[in-house]
Each structure stands twice: as C-alpha cells, then as structure tokens.
Amino acid sequence: MNIIFCLFGTMIRSNCKGLDQFSAKRDPLEIFKEWFEAASESGIELPEAMSLATATRDARPSNRIVLLKEFDKDGFKFYTNYESRKALELDENPRASLVFHWAILRRQIRIEGDVTRIPEKESFKYFKTRPRNSQIGSWASQQSTSLDSREILLGRFEMYQKKFSGIEVPLPPFWGGYLLLPSTIEFWEGRDDRLHDRLLFIRQGVDWHSERLFP
C-alpha cells in the first residue's frame, strides 16, 4: 500500500483528503486497517499502543495503555493477567473502550464494545510467540497487587527461571487474551482551522450505520 504524506503545519499526516463522503459508505474495519498500516509505516514508536478504559459494576472507571496484538473482522485482541485490575473490572462489567492516538498523523480512533475472553488454546498460541523472559515474567508478576520491594519481584522471576529451566514455559492459568467486539468506531482527523473530521460508525446487526459529527 502506498502512503502519501502531506504537510500539515509542522506536522505530517498520511491522507490529504481527510474523511470524504465516500468514507461513510465503507466498512470501518477496513478504514481502521488502512489507518493502522499508515501509522505503522510512518515510523511512530508503538503504533499498536492503545488506551483501554474499563469500569466496575458501579461505573467507577479506570484507564491504562496496553498493546493491540491482533485485529480482524471479529474485533480487537489484547492480552493480560486475568487477576489484574482491568480483568477484574471486565469480569464485573464486560464492556470497554479503546483509543488510538497518532499525533504526528493528526488521527484518533475511538472504539467501544463488549469484551469476552478468547479460548485458552488461542491464548497459548500467542503466548508461545513471546520472548522466553517475557513468558517467565508473566508467571512472576502478581499484577496489580501490592509489592513491598522490587527485590521480591526479581526473586520470583529467578524462581520461575529455575523452575522452567530446560523446558517449555507453560501458559499461566491466570493469563490470556480478550476480544473486544466493536459496537461503535469513531474516526477523527485533524483539519485546518479546527474544522476537524469526525465519522462515527454504529453496528446494526451485521451492518454498520454511519454519521458525520461536528468537531
């Protein structure tokens, strides 16, 4: 795919035309794919970084940056410790929102939807692609719980290094992936004079309804 970069003040971005009328008739997941590829080719560090917002049953929100690992027609996948704060909140309230912000391209994508755990077999398939020390780190970290000193964490890491020495690191029973199935996807692109483009897609069954929003 050829990416054309256009000047935008002192910034650059990958689309000279913005979100035109034709965009509203497209599949938003295809637009996401194009924007993500443009971000990846632009030289941005960690274009897959996204803000993940969750909330408790009584609507107390929390937010953090995680990494998108896969996306397809079914949705967006990320991985974590199932005993972490984000996971416990998803157990209580299985809905979440994602935000991608690529400042140099003047682009932002907001995604909301239901979240489910992916099958253990699929989680293990991804787990095996991680560096070995990252696999061991997943065992060592009791994510989101209190830690009296870093030495305790390093000691746990060393303990699991010895435990799994010479063998394949197994998938921790408390670790795996989630799939966010999008119900809404909003694209934002910066334009001159703060007359930005905003295009919202709302899932309706198997189809998408789109509408343009004031900036």
What would your notes on this structure say?
This protein has 215 residues and is an alpha+beta fold. The protein contains five helices and eleven strands. It has a single domain, classed as Pnp Oxidase, Chain A. 25% of the residues lie in helices and 36% in strands. Strands 3, 4, 5, 6, 7, 8, 9, 10 and 11 form a nine-stranded antiparallel β-sheet that branches. Strands 1-2 form a two-stranded antiparallel ribbon. Strand 1 and strand 2 form a beta hairpin. Helix 4 packs across helix 5. 25% of the residues are buried. The N terminus is likely disordered.
How much of the sequence lies in strands comes to 35-45%
Rg computed from alpha carbons, rounded to a whole number of angstroms: 20 Å
- The CATH class label is Mainly Beta
What CATH architecture label applies? Roll
Strand runs, count: 11
Number of helices: 5
Order of helices and strands: EEHEEEEHEEHHHEEE
Which structural category fits the helices and strands? alpha+beta
Kindly state the percentage of residues in helix.
Answer: 10-25%
- Overall outline: elongated
What CATH calls the topology is Pnp Oxidase, Chain A
Distance between the termini: 29 Å
The CATH superfamily name is Electron Transport, Fmn-binding Protein, Chain A
The largest pleated sheet is described as: 9 strands, antiparallel
Low-confidence stretches: 1-16
Calculate the mean pLDDT score and round it: 92
Tally of discrete structural domains = 1
